[in-house]
Amino acid sequence: MIIRIDEYSDVPIYMQIRNQIVMGISSGELKPGEQLPTVRALALEIGINTMTVSKTYQLLKQEGYIMTDRKNGARVRENITQSGVISEENKTELRRIVSEARLSGVGKDALKKLIDEFY
Amino acid sequence: MTWIIKLVMFICIVPTVILMYILGFSKNPGKKNMIMGVRDNPKFHEGKGQEKFDTIVSSARKGGLIITAIVVILSIVMLFLPVNGGTLLAWVLLVFALFLVAVPYGKGNTELKNLKKELGITKSGVTYTDITSTNTVHALKLPWLILPNALALISTIAAVLIDFGVFGVTPAVEKYALTVMSLSFLFIAAIMIPIAVMMDNARNMVISRDSSINANYSRAKKKTWADLFIAMSWANALYLIANSVLMFFTDSEAAVLISTLGYTAVIMAVVVIGVINQRQVENRYERDTELELQDDDDNWLLGMFYYNKNDTRLNVEKRLGYGGTINLAHPAGKVIGIVSALILIGSLIMIIYLNVTGQLVV
Fold this sequence. Notes:
The complex is a heterodimer.
Chain A: E1 2-6, H1 13-27, H2 39-46, H3 50-62, E2 66-69, E3 73-76, H4 88-103, H5 108-118
Antiparallel strand pairs in A: 2-3
Helix pairs in contact in A: 1-3, 2-3
Chain B: H1 2-24, E1 34-35, E2 38-39, H2 47-80, H3 87-97, H4 102-118, E3 126-130, H5 142-163, H6 177-200, H7 211-249, H8 253-284, E4 300-301, E5 305-306, E6 315-317, E7 324-326, H9 331-356
Antiparallel strand pairs in B: 1-2, 4-5, 6-7
Helix pairs in contact in B: 1-2, 1-3, 1-8, 2-3, 2-4, 3-9, 5-6, 5-7, 6-7, 7-8
């Protein structure tokens, strides 16, 4: 799975990695139980501080996407808890995206088609 | 025997300067991803940009060609010149003159960076990492690297013990000559092992959205580096052992010099084969054009020295030539950089001093 890091983005690097790992799990690129690189290996590979990767993994663990233990390192969770609801934070983000799309003249159908494609 | 020393220097200098010229100044710069340490950009090939780009590149290429030609011609002339007190110093200075090829390269690099600003080429800070193959792609078989260097170590220990009279035998050469020679070549082995390991642990390149292509590409590149270091280690160890045997049984300067000549030829051949193999790998794989290229040209001082405070890696892939280089902003990189510069300057001063005081004779 390829991770794209934009140094000039407003989104912090730890969040960029987190978002892409979540997208990878959702799309099936990262399979349940799949081993993730160690904090040190990933930090060395990207060329960033280990604390940044550690923060990403802590966040992913907290959100229930991955599990970590001393012996096996980080792995994608076999059973991710499905709450069935969209968080308030994501709702706000979705509203912003829909608003911007409407202002740009993107039709509802086009937006729905995009959702179908990403889902 | 001076002609053998001259031949050794000639074999070292001429292929090196030609390789530096070929690698630094491409014949078809428009077809390369990197031109004198600056990433190619479509704006370089539009209207006035193309005009200025061509002027910069051809001027640097011309400069490189002139310096290369001078070094080659001087090497040929010195090969046939009669020997005097300054011969060895002249050859050593010619080795240092190799660095002059980097001058038009660095100048071209600076001019291209200025052209980027002039054309309004904005920076892209995008990097890609393939987390599927993180820390899993390796090509170096450590036992094959350790074995020749272990043999070199055993040979050196034997040389030291012989010189200190532990075995009760005396070598044909003068006392401690065997130890000094062995330790010098063991030092090369000691440097080669960490560099080989470092290159094998280098970051994997992302050239495709397909992880298996990225893994294969990185593995192929690492394999060429691993083969190069293993071949050099074997050449080093075999030379050390052969030379020790020669020096033990005979005090013949001719025999030692001939084996040195063979060693130099083998090392140069190994390097050339390594470069050819790297080029073949590069030609076999094509980069996915949809992947954005990171613009980190400003982190490459003169297109040769990597200095990036925001990068925690110590070793990165070179822009000039093949292999790796160090991040001079890394604490360990700073130490390595300063020590290397001191060794280079120190050895030059020492050679000049020895020559002036008449201690450096051929």
